[in-house]
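Practice record 12: protein with nicotinamide-adenine-dinucleotide.
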Amino acid sequence: MGMLSGKVAMITGAADGIGRAAVTVFAREGALVLACDIDGAGAEAAAAAVRADGGQALASAMDVSDLSQVRVGVELALTSWGSLDVAFNNAGITGPMTSLVDYPDEWFERVVAVNVRGTWNCLREQIPAMLQSGSGAIVNASSGAGAVGAPGIGIYAATKHAILGLTKVAALENATAGVRVNAVLPGIIDTNQPRNLTHDIPGAMDAFKSAMPIGRLGRADEVAEAAAWLCSDRASLVTGVGVAVDGGYLAQ
Ligand SMILES: NC(=O)c1ccc[n+]([C@@H]2O[C@H](COP(=O)([O-])OP(=O)(O)OC[C@H]3O[C@@H](n4cnc5c(N)ncnc54)[C@H](O)[C@@H]3O)[C@@H](O)[C@H]2O)c1
């Protein structure tokens, strides 16, 4: 029996990186996975890989900044499988690397829309669905940059702080109702996100590696494992916290 056996799980940002790894880990732990991504073909590929392995998965093309698209995804889970039990709200973007004073307005709007509004959109569709069945667990993707300042990615850092705020409020508002809400704070994880962010800065990935006390970048599956545990009943007393999954980054 996996630790998510029989649970219906919604994962956003499921086409790539941490979300893609989470699709694999959650399915391995027995979840029925709804893979959601703005990249609909990528989400379908993730779901198809689970089905090819004998698991159950569906895909939903979804821009999390659009409430109506999030609603369609949650309804797909409810109509297909009868409940929504757990969710990993992982979709997020960094925007460009530049100082706060030079940050472009259009990127401010987009990063806030995807990271903050997107997380809120997911919470406000998922929580009522979980309350219908009387229990649930949600994990939001914050960041090390959600706990300390991150020069050059200030708006991203602000949104990741906001995600911790949403997490704490959602946890407190639903604590007695059986729905737990937590966050993961990944350190620097070897996905396309940090690579794309620093593609024009020579040696940036090596500098990231040196910033990690563990001496290496994190792997997407290591964050997915933490999210799966937080979503499972094994974490039954854990709610309202941000769990660092960062090789010691925030201990410095
Ligand atoms: N990689 C890191 O070092 C790191 C560190 C800390 C936090 N995080 C956070 O973890 C999460 C996943 O990061 P990653 O490294 O896997 O990123 P990634 O860029 O590798 O993958 C992100 C996925 O989200 C999808 N996505 C983007 N915008 C979307 C939207 N509006 N709606 C739905 N899907 C959307 C993308 O298509 C992609 O499949 C993000 O929230 C990120 O901020 C990552």
